[in-house]
Amino acid sequence: MNNHSPITQINGEDTNCVNAFDRGLYYGHGLFETTRLSGGAIPLWPLHCKRLAAGASRLGIPCDERKLVEYRDTLLAQCPDNGIVKIVLTAGVGGSGYRPPESVSPSYLFQWFPFPKYSCDWFSTGIPLFLCKHKLAISSSLAGMKHLNRLEQVLARAEWGDEYPEGLLLDQQGLVIEGVSSNLFCFRENQWFTPILADCGVAGVMREYLMSVLLPALSVPVTESRITLEKLVSSEEVFLCNSVVGIWPVVSLADRYHWPLGEHVKSIQHRLQDVLPCYG
Predict the structure, then answer these.
(1) Is the CB of residue 248 less than 8 Å from the CB of residue 240?
(2) Same fold, 7-113 and 122-279
């Protein structure tokens, strides 16, 4: 574990100061990506760029991939070690109240942080999962995006302390959606299922990689589905994933429901580690 201080750059310049009139600060008018830095590179970079560009298009924010690469490389040249690189794209300054300006001049914020103090055991032993009381609001116009409005996650994360690594979020109908900072997969009926994110939730980069690349390479079927809590607790195996930690097997929920550390999850973990060793 390193003790280096975080690094912040805005539009390629070293600074810790955000414009007080930035629409990202005022209205949450922007998006972000949380990526892993390993060996001087960001795994799954193309998928991060793809998601950021798609979300920016939905929010009316121009996203220049050449600038993303330029500002990324400027930051990486200063990073002292492996860690976390956070990318924030905002609509910049301008507009009249909520109404955006006719011509948006986006701001690109890049940050490096030391890697969080996660337990190395969770990869192999699995994690207990907290069941959040907060229910996600339905908003199909925002569903899937990793936009800057994260108050729901803030409220959910305030429900527990350090006794659980992660919490499970349901929607207003009681359907399973995601972890507070991760996506969920469950194994039942000889295939993997992951919640449909058409009404709420964040479509994670690791989720996309597993569904479109890794699981098909293993000839393992995966289906997006509406998952009730009853279906989840009767599943054979469960795991959470994101682009920082990789895959965490889930062994319990709310200290009431339990799953084994099964071979299906382990096989996916091992394949991910073979392709991207930083997730081992």
Answers:
(1) yes
(2) no
CA distances from 32 to 75, 147, 194, 202, 223 (A): 16, 6, 23, 11, 26
In contact, 31 and 62? CB cutoff 8 Å:
no
Largest CA distance in the chain: 56
Stretch (H or E) spanning 272: helix 263-275
Q: State whether residue 78 is helix, strand or coil.
A: coil
**Residue-by-residue DSSP string for 111-165:** EEEPPP---TTHHHH-EEEEEEEEEEPP-TTTTB--BS--HHHHHHHTT--SS-S
CATH number of 122-279: 3.20.10.10
Q: State CA 261 to chain mean position distance.
A: 23
Q: Could you give the C-alpha distances from 135 to 45, 70, 89, 141, 169, in angstroms and in order?
A: 31, 39, 27, 18, 6
Distances (CA, A) of 191 to 3, 38, 208, 210, 261: 43, 31, 17, 13, 16
pLDDT, tens digit, for every residue of 110-159? 999 999 887 678 999 999 999 999 999 999 999 999 999 999 999 999 99
Q: Which of 108, 85, 117 is nearest to 7 (CA)?
A: 85
Average pLDDT value over all residues in the chain: 96
* Alpha-carbon span 193 to 225, nearest angstrom: 6
Query: 7-113, what's its fold?
Result: D-amino Acid Aminotransferase; Chain A, domain 1 (3.30.470)
